[in-house]
From TrEMBL:
CDD domains: CobW-like
Coiled-coil boundaries: none
UniProt keyword terms in alphabetical order: Chaperone, Hydrolase, Nucleotide-binding
Organism: Plastoroseomonas arctica
Protein name per the record: GTP-binding protein
Protein family membership: Belongs to the SIMIBI class G3E GTPase family. ZNG1 subfamily.
Keyword Nucleotide-binding assigned: yes
Residues of the CobW C-terminal domain: 231-326
Recorded catalytic activity of this chain's protein: GTP + H2O = GDP + phosphate + H(+)
GO MF assignments: hydrolase activity; nucleotide binding
Length: 329
């Protein structure tokens, strides 16, 4: 059985370590290994995790480029050896530095064939400091990507009195598929977010894909100087069964030509000739191998749904391209 991996990200000072400390005290996170990626010559964040033991590791600095992949691979391979030797590790949590682009970590978790046999990406939790978020999102593209790829967004420091309504609207525009939760959210709302539970109960498709608000074609009115004017999300739905070859060929073309623009892609597909749903999941140039779930959830309409979170790529471009490949098939 694969071990779930949760990625906790968020900009500097958002409260990632505070959240991690709280979660690790909960019985649901017993036997959790913690990996911490600290930026700088000397790592300090690992000293703030109260439940330090021999399953807590510090990843080497390097979060601003893909060198983190080697460090993460090495750390996860070490955990693999521990698991295979009998050490009880039921879950892995990775806390990134506030300056981290989450894409390299997601690439490693989704593309390394050795790691895929042992680990599965369970979800991305992004913390947002409500007192500084609007300025942070304006000034730092990393913060935007952290919010855009999230499965769950947690607002922190709301007790300091900021009006969060404009921030909530902005985050909903940026990533309408990620529920926005309070800082005291229970583990049940933050764990088991992914579709890759092959040996567990059937995941709830709606729970994974997130808010149905993505079905609408949103018309945002951001300040043109904001970075997030370039990032948006949309959902495409197809009622008729699709061919996997058409979808795969289109995504291969899109990755080749516009891979950098694909911040995150999720899809659950009704494939011709299959009575079970197929799940796809991608980040930029990397797509997880397709997975066939055991069955459709009760009451699901069995439509194919794609969720795209993109940068400088229009819905019309994606929709026309996918339609052309479907028609050709």
């Amino acid at each position: 059985m694969s071990t779930p991996v949760t990625l906790i990200t968020g900009f500097l000072g958002a409260g990632k370590t505070t959240l991690l400390n709280r979660l690790l005290k909960h019985p649901d996170l017993a036997e959790t290994a913690v990996l911490i990626n600290e930026f700088g010559d000397v790592g300090l964040d690992h000293l703030l995790v109260e439940t330090l033991d021999d399953t807590t590791m510090l990843l080497a600095a390097g979060c601003l480029c893909c060198t983190i992949r080697g460090d993460l691979h090495k750390a996860l391979m070490d955990l693999t050896a521990r698991i295979e030797s009998g050490q009880p590790i039921r879950r892995v949590m990775i806390e990134t530095t506030g300056l981290a682009d989450p894409a390299p970590i997601l690439h490693t978790l989704m593309s390394d064939p050795v790691l895929l046999r042992r680990f599965r990406l369970d979800g991305v939790i992004t913390l947002i400091d409500a007192t500084n978020a609007m300025h942070t999102l304006d000034a730092h593209p990393e913060a935007l990507k952290q919010a855009a790829v999230a499965d769950r967004i947690i607002l922190t420091k709301t007790d300091l009195g900021p009006d969060t309504a404009p921030l909530r609207t902005r985050l909903a525009d940026l990533n309408p598929h990620a529920p926005i939760l309070a800082a005291d959210a229970e583990p049940a709302a933050l764990l088991d977010l992914g579709p890759f539970q092959l040996n567990a109960k059937l995941p709830d498709v709606a729970h994974w894909l997130g808010h149905e608000a993505g079905h609408a074609h949103h018309h945002h009115h951001h300040d043109r100087n904001r970075h997030d004017a370039h990032i948006h999300s949309f959902t495409l739905r197809y009622d008729q069964p699709l061919t996997l070859d058409a979808v795969a060929s289109f995504l291969e073309m899109l990755v080749t030509t516009r891979g950098d623009a694909l911040l995150r892609v999720k899809a659950i597909l009704n494939i011709q000739g299959e009575d079970r749903p197929t799940v796809l999941h991608g980040v930029q140039h990397i797509f997880h191998p397709p997975i066939r779930l055991s069955a459709w959830p009760d009451g699901d309409d069995r439509s194919s749904r794609f969720v795209f979170i993109v940068k400088d790529l229009t819905r019309e471009t994606v929709e026309r391209g996918l339609a052309a490949f479907i028609e050709a098939a």
